Fold this protein.
Amino acid sequence: MICQHCTKQLQPDWKFCPKCGNAVDEQKEPARSYGSSVRAQVFEVIVRQGLAGAPWRYICAGPMKVNNISEEEIQAEIDRRRSL
């Protein structure tokens, strides 16, 4: 699969493009709903907070709850990006 935004070659299990940061799942569906786009953006912000060393579990608890994002999802993406 290739990122529709930056043309980077993507692995099937990636949730985000490591080059431009756009959500891979959203690239599979040409018509996106407002909610899925917002969730992807919130997810990205929280992951970046985690990568920066911020206490994301505490400061992002509200947005995570509203957007149905689990701590496990965030931690898995943080771990994946750190291993790149």
User: Anything to note?
Assistant: The helical segments are 24-28, 34-51, 56-59, 61-66, 71-82.
